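This is your field. Have a critical look at both lines of this record:
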Amino acid sequence: MRHGSLFSGIGGPDLAAEWMGWENVFHCEINPFGRNVLNYYWPDATSYDDIKKTDFTIHRGNIDILTGGFPCQPYSLAGNRKGKEDDRHLWPHMLRAIREIQPTWIVGENVRGIVSWNNGMVFEEVQAEMENEGYEVQSFEIPSCGIGADHVRERVWFCAYSGRLGRENVQSNDRGSTNKIKHPKGDWKNSTQWTKETDELDSPCNTFLRFQEMYSEPPIFDVADGLPFELDGITVPKWIEESHKAAGNAIDPRIIFEIFKAIDRL
């Protein structure tokens, strides 16, 4: 399976795809800190920054599964909930990417607040607009505690499938035949089985520890290093702040790993 991710953060979906043994073809993340993490762990994947300025048509018909946790701030109960008036309402750009890429599978993610914002307007639009593109869509509410995490982290997941789009279909059509197109067996919408077998797997939420591989120089505080003492503690706390923010925004790879396993069983 060939996987591409949008709003990739520090690579929750990409890590889950790696656990599956799938190929991470590209990622798209505007935050430089997150992009550095992505490029470090998946250097062979194409790296994009601003989704608003990225043309994804080069990947058309060549991606099996596309993931994207489009920004949640416009709908989050912790914010001002400006919804479509918020500059971070980027679902329309994810929809454009879907049209350009035409993947077989789509897995989207957002906060629970998207269900209640403006009586569910965006929640319904996301599903309706994917259906208009030819996808069957099902939404789920799955918290991180549902797979054994110590925090709740309520999230809404959108899973979509098209039997006429994606890599296999394009290849079959190119051969002049569609009889090799694979369709899901049974009801994929209800096939996900949650387990705790991934609890001990490495997670991007442990990014703070994993970064030791990237930054081998130890932090130096209040020593005669030739620099003004006022500079001590600036760089490292900024790095810690960015890592904490990235982990807070990250998709829990253990949940999406279970979704990937359900898809793989079909």
